[in-house]
Structures are given as structure tokens and as C-alpha cells.
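If you are new to this repository, start here. Below is one unmodified record pulled from the training split, so you can see the exact layout before writing a loader.
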Amino acid sequence: MSQQQISLPAKLINGGIAGIVGVTCVFPIDLAKTRLQNQRSGKQVYRSMMDCLIKTVRSEGYFGMYRGAAVNLTLVTPEKAIKLAANDFFRHHLAKDGKGLTVFKEMLAGCGAGMCQVVVTTPMEMLKIQLQDAGRLAAQHQKPVMMSPSKLVAANGVLSRSYNSGTVTSTPRVVSATQIAKELLHTEGIQGLYKGLGATLMRDVPFSVVYFPLFANLNRLGKPSPSEQSPFYWAFLSGCAAGSTAAVAVNPVDVVKTRLQSLNKGASEESYDGVVDCVSKILRKEGPSAFLKGAGCRALVIAPLFGIAQVMYFVGVGEYILDNFPPSFMSV
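And here is the target side for that same chain:
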């Protein structure tokens, strides 16, 4: 695909399809990542990723592994589409006379893409984390319950009263992601959905700065000639390698973001007043190794997710769809 002829609708379609396919494949691992990151020392319910998945299936059923998937599948399309299309947009405008980009400009384009995507990423992660972590809280209280993947266990009181309060949920009730969103909007306004925005920026901007230049350079190694594209399998492997590397690099910030966005706490779990307070408390009470919690899971989630995304992107699924099934609003 020529960078000089950017088709934004096609790239949005590519990013959307890639996001849906990728999330469907790796969501259980993402759930394990969230639960492992939210565990505190001395209050561990799960020993590893496999232990988490096994216990989740036993206590919540197979679909318990997909708790929160509905929120992710709904919002991952615009999130991945914005990320990939924004990077391509910035690369296109930073290039001069069709010449290749320097590494600095590639990083700059990635930075722009990361800043654009948080508009969707922050509320998506906010709602998803509540749904994913509900099973851990229930298991911690030894009250596992069977629920659908789009539901969570929340306190009987108003949700906003339990934010970061460290209170224990004694009598669970079923609350949907829509109810959480409505409650947040009612009590805190739009900023309620953007809790943890700073930490999300601190994660996604560096991720994009590392990922996109690394992918571009790895993918370039697989090109038969400068004028040809790399094979699809090379694009997939390059996306996997760049994605897993970037994911592990920013995992400490992802741990902080997860902790800040978790509204309900288990027994004796501390609350945080912000990024600095969260970092200092984790260091003091759990040590530096706590920042690597879920790193393996995150690498396993991001690697295929971005590998699939780059295959969709470079094969040109969106271009094919628009060429063969042009929607009426595109022809105006």
C-alpha cells in the first residue's frame, strides 16, 4: 500500500477487523493479566496465568474467561482503527518527497498515534477492568458466583461511594457495564470514565513510540526488494515481536494504570491518590518485582493482537472491501 495514497476508511476497516479478531483470540489471557496485576502480596488468589484460567473456568464457567469481552469488542474497533490510522497519517505527513522516515520521525508518528487512541482506550479499559476483576474479588472472599461475561459483582451501595475505598463487598449484586458507565457519568461526569487518563497516556504513548518504529524496521528486513512488500507471515512475525517487546517495556505503567482504574477493592487493599502515590506504595509494600506482574500475559496478548493487525493492514482487507462493496456514503 502506497503511503502517498492513504485511504483512511480502508485503514479504519483494517484496524477494526484486526481488533475484533485479535481480542476474540486472546481475551482470556488479558483477563488473567488484569487479575494477576491487581493481586497484592499475601493475598494472592492465583499463582500463575494457567492457575488463574483454570480457577476461573471452575468457579465461573468457560464464558467467565470472557467477562468484559463485550465492552472490549465494542470499543476495540475504534481504538485499534484510530491507533493504526493515526500512525499512518502522521508517517505520511512527516515524510518528505516520498523519502523514508528517520527513526526519530517514526517515533514521533507513534507518539501522535498513542495520544490519539487514549480518547477511546481510557473508558474502554475503565469498564473492562471492573468486569474482569470481579471474579478475583469474589474468589478472594470465597464467594465465587456464576455470571455472564458482560456482568460484574459490585457493592450493594452506590458504586461511586466505593471508589478506591478498600471496602469489602459482602452481598454482591449484578451490575452491567452500561450501569457502571451511567453511574460514573451521573456522579462524576465525563471525567469519571477517564479515571487513570494520565497513566493510560504514560503507557500508550511510550508503547507506540517503541512499537511502530520497531515494527517498521523489522518488517523492512523481510522485503525482497525496496519496492516490494514483505510477505504476510513476515508482517505477522514483525508485529508479534514488536508488540511483545513494547508490551513488556511499558508493563510497569500498565500495573499502575490497572490499580488506579480498579474501583472496587478486596479486603485490606489500599487506595491510591494518583500515579506517584501508587508507584510509591507498590514499591514500599510489594517491591520492584510487582511492576512486572502480568508481563508474560501482556506479551502473549499484545503479540498476536498486533501480528493479526499488521497482516490485515498489509494484506489490505479494507481496500478489498471498499473496492468490491463500496458503501453509498463513500461514493458521495
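Two things worth knowing about this chain: Confidence is low (pLDDT under 50) at residues 1-5, 143-172. The first helix runs from residue 8 to 38.
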